[in-house]
Write a structure and sequence with these properties.
Layout: E1 3-8, H1 14-24, E2 27-31, H2 50-55, E3 58-59, H3 72-88, E4 92-96, H4 100-108, H5 127-137, H6 139-144, H7 150-163, H8 167-173, E5 184-188, H9 192-209, H10 211-222, H11 235-241, H12 247-271, E6 277-279, H13 283-290
Parallel strand pairs: 1-4, 1-5, 2-3, 2-4, 5-6
Length: about 290
Amino acid sequence: MKILAIIGATCSGKSALALNLASKINAYIFSIDSLSIYKEINIASAKPTKAELDSIKHFAIDVLSPVESVNAGVFIRLLDNAITECKKDSKNLVIVGGSSFYLKSIIQGLSNIDSINIESKFINKSLSEKYVILQNLDSIFAAKISQNDTYRINKALSIFEATGKIPSVYFKENPPKPFPHKIDIYNLQIPRDVLIERINKRTKSMIKQGLIDEAKYILESYGDSIQPFKSIGLKECLLYFKGQINLSELESMIAIHTRQLAKRQSTFNKTQFENIVQIDSNIESILKKIT
């Protein structure tokens, strides 16, 4: 059984590529996306269509209620189940999605942090301020990571808040459990101007498809304190509902935030994985690299 992951910036075409690839290598698809995992959130998550979901079996889509929290522990349990099913059905597995930090956590191994979200009361502070806080809390751990490593800084602060233990002590007491399967990682890259154009088109399409109505339904059903309302597309709708921005500003803000996310994703993907293979959307060249 072969397991491979396709990562890349939002709107880079990962999902379409994964569908094409899975059909050619006899594979199921595992979605590693922090919004697609939720039921009822279909437009904001740019979830695959029903036809796409029906064409190839997908895992980790429409699993959680919007009131539930997602973390790396949730994904690793779902991934274990997916791998078991793939083995039973003699299938390969294509992992795809924009939440690469969950993939990194899975590969590195978890330290009993299933219930710890990469979230913090320091969320509104700048990265440099959070790094100073971490230095004051745990200078040993802070010295081991870059002051620009957003993921590890947030993770360290979250561990301290959740357990009361500084990260260096916590990780010593809870060593990571290595993931027992090899995952080959492919980073999909497209030209920046093409990516920006796709982001703008997707934003317009989401609003046209009914993003505002979807966000209103989720808000009225579950309130504004749920984890999904921290996500791009939904958090901007909250400002729109409060009258703080108009429709034109809503579209502009979502597009800007999505471009910023794409830049962060690209940086993360280039720096946080070892032995990563850079690819474009040419399916034949990808198949050669895989085989």
